[in-house]
Amino acid sequence: MKTMLPLLVAAGLGLCVANPAHADDNWIVHVGAHVVDPASNNGTLAGMKASVGSDLKPTVSLEYLFTPSWSVDLLAALPFSHDVRLDGLKAATTKQLPPTIGVNYHFMPEATVSPFVGAGINYTRFFDTKGTGPLTGTVVRIDNSWGAAAHAGVDVTLAPNWLFTADVRWIDIGGDVHVNGANVGKAKVNPLVYGVSFGYRF
């Protein structure tokens, strides 16, 4: 899995170089905000039911259309913060960065309203994880995660170079949790990431 992200990046860059005839107005920068909303069942840690809270943060993505219908995009964001609860009691906090790269297919690229679907690869880095409540004073760590991602949404053209996008992603995110070096289980985050953005095409 770890080799797939650089290969996908290389493939996307290769398509950019291989299609010089489409060099004009094929880059889009999207700026918006998205919610990371973890699945309702986040696994079991140390024999207790785990739940991971949601968070909203600004996001930015860069998209390259190598044909009118096909594109490659890279999503980035400010770090998302999450509370981790065990049997309903707050036991840890963590932050994560989930850069995601993927390929999208736009069904009606010339229309004012154009839906799209896509798939890609995600890498999530957990950091600044701290124990609270019953885990105060312990060293808590969550392993980083590689996983698949699915993408769907709709672009609405506002002006020749401006568009509005509403989208949702499902991302396979899960990392083993360690308390004082001992593995206590796996946090299965597997969130929906949904939000809106404004894009500028150049």
Characterise the protein shown here.
The protein is mainly beta. 7% of the residues lie in helices and 64% in strands. The protein has a single domain, classed as Porin (Beta Barrel). It contains 1 helix and 15 strands. The longest helix is centred in the first third of the chain and has 15 residues, at 4-18. It is elongated and about 55 Å long. 32% of the residues are buried. The model is unreliable at 1-23 (pLDDT under 50).
What is shown here, in short?
The chain has 202 residues and is mainly beta. The protein has one helix spanning 4-18, and strands spanning 27-37, 44-45, 48-52, 55-65, 70-77, 80-86, 89-97, 100-106, 113-131, 140-142, 145-159, 162-171, 174-179, 182-188, 192-201.
- Compute the number of strand runs: 15
Main sheet overview: 8 strands, antiparallel, barrel
- The CATH class designation is Mainly Beta
**CATH architecture type:** Beta Barrel
Using the CA coordinates, give the radius of gyration.
Answer: 19 Å
- H/E series: HEEEEEEEEEEEEEEE
Question: Percentage of helical residues?
Answer: under 10%
What low-confidence regions span 5 or more consecutive residues with pLDDT below 50? 1-23
What best-fitting shape do the alpha-carbon axes yield? elongated
- Order of strands, widest sheet: 1-4-5-8-9-11-12-15
Overall tally of structural domains: 1
Strand content: over 45%
Mean pLDDT: 90
CATH-defined fold name = Porin
